[in-house]
Amino acid sequence: MTVVIMLIMNKKALFCLFCVTCLAFDLSGQSTSFTFSNQAESSSLSPTADSIAGHVVAWGDIDGDGWEDLFIGVFSYKGRTNMLFRNKNGAFEFDDQEVFRFPTRSTGMVFADLDNDGDLDLYFASMPVEEDKKKTLLDGASGNRLFRNDGKGGFTDISEVSGACPVDLGGRGVAVFDYDGDGLPDILVGSDPMPGYSGSQTTTSRLFKNLGNLRFKDVTKEAGIPENAPGYGVVPCDFNDDGWPDFFLAASDGGNRLFINDGKGRFHENEKLNELFKWQWTGGDNMVCGVAIGDVNRDGLMDIVLGSHFLSPWYYPQPVRLFLNRGEINGGLSFEEVTLQAGLPPIHIKTPHVEIRDFDNDGWPDIYASAVKFRGDSIYPIISKNLGVSGKGVPKFVTDANDVNDFPTLDEINFDRTHKRSDFFFKIQDEKRITYFAPGPTCDYNNDGLMDIFLASWWPEFPSMLLRNETVNPNNWLKVRVQNVKGVNRMGLGSKVRIYKEGQLGEAEGLIGSNEVCVSNGYASGQTAVVHFGLGENSTVDVEVILPHNKGKIVRKGINANQLVTIN
């Protein structure tokens, strides 16, 4: 029995109306679309990465050995510190660098080659506070930081001289992209919409132009970014295919806004689209957090998904919202919300982080949120499987993991109403019912061609999880890296990669998948600059790379499946 609860409230939340509906979903004993197992202990992440108040995670190969390393940022309660783990052939070693032992309220992070020297530097967003009044952060918390990589994975803090870490910024989401086409990756930092909580008085997201040699200049006003434009989640993408990267800011209280690049160093908004992206009942503790891009219907256009962090989703469940990019209509960029038509269900837990990834390599990108359900000792991440496109280019999804148990029951709802919220979370985790995580970036950490998930636990009673993808299928895959191409940034950020059936390059009916090189999808999460594609039964494909800023195309034909290909 599943309980569906609808919450009706005025601004002061005076009352709740409960509507209990019995649904005929019972997947006990049945298989689901995807299979994962928790490898945190066997990979040596646990117990170091357990009970850490983890709030941000980034993947990146910091030492160039071909294995993606892992950084976890924390809230520094009770002396907890940030953690770097080196990936050694799929197992991890804790690298306790002193430079990372500073108090934080970490909120965003990416590894990126900011000086184009061939190694990954680290930009770290944190909400500053001098001293927590509740004495949980005795040493306060630092603001944003920038760390230079020495080429071997050793880092130096260059925050004070970088120009990208102002003390008055309570940073949130972080994106790296070359907004002006000069070949240097710039930094966009989303701001918190609640100044008192963030530790600063600004709610304006900031754009830092890369001047070279890891020096930056704040060009927020010059670029046309208005005041009071916050961003819990920040993602860059060339949405209108004009060659110039745009960006989306996901947030309540003034967020959920799309900014279009004019190709001359300035951005403008489309108020009609911003109205479409609004999320009803948001504000305060009902937050929109994550935003991710991907081509869910394989039409070559980048679509958008949004994830939420509502205060009580077991009363008032929210779906992951899906907006299809419909391209240019009547001279302007157009999106259409298809959440209901696509079959994306309400989820009875917070889903702050979202991504679009093909978890079974069938060629149809799935939609994932940073929450898991349990059945016994088995773990089921909330993934909506893409079944393909029906009429009008709308994909259909099935979220069978949502129904592996009957949370929330009426007893659980009553427990929440009569106990502290912390007791409620302890109960549902201790009984292995459901839980969520703030960050949850995907990565093929063991290089087997299947996308895995790391979930950093916020809860002191619950461990972090490294979910290894063990979904059995005969499908092929391809990973593409754009690197060191003349005229663009060394990481190829902003490059569009399209995969076609062999011999059908450029033909719409031959398109298997498309995506854009991006390291900042979702919420509080950083990904690698490697684009992953499921190929289904295709064993040989053609690859087209469209370089940013209209710098041309690169074509590779007859590429064999099941490998990482570097385009340069």
Structure description:
The model is unreliable at 1-29 (pLDDT under 50). The chain is mostly beta strands. The relative contact order is 0.14. The strands form 9 sheets. Strands 5-4-3-2-33 form a 5-stranded mixed sheet, with no helix packed on it. Strands 22, 23, 24, 25 and 26 form a 5-stranded antiparallel sheet that branches. The chain has a 4-stranded antiparallel sheet with strand order 1-29-28-27, with no helix packed on it.
Task: Furnish the topology, listing elements before pairings.
Elements: E1 36-38, E2 54-60, E3 69-74, E4 83-88, E5 91-94, E6 106-112, E7 121-126, E8 145-149, E9 155-157, H1 159-162, E10 171-177, E11 186-191, H2 195-198, E12 206-212, E13 215-218, E14 233-237, E15 246-250, E16 257-261, E17 267-269, H3 271-277, E18 287-294, E19 303-309, E20 321-329, E21 332-337, E22 354-357, E23 366-375, E24 378-389, E25 395-398, H4 410-418, H5 421-430, E26 434-436, E27 442-443, E28 452-455, E29 465-469, E30 476-482, E31 496-501, E32 511-516, E33 525-526, E34 530-536, E35 540-546, E36 553-560, E37 564-567
Please give a quick description of this structure:
This protein has 568 residues and is mainly β. The protein contains 5 helices and 37 strands.
Distance between the termini: 54 Å
Mean pLDDT: 91
- Sheet with most strands: strand arrangement: 5-4-3-2-33
Structural class: mainly beta
The number of helices is 5
List low-confidence stretches: 1-29
* Largest sheet data: 5 strands, mixed
Helix content: under 10%
Number of strands: 37
Radius of gyration: 22 Å
Name the shape in a single word.
Answer: globular
What proportion of the residues form beta strands (DSSP E)? 35-45%
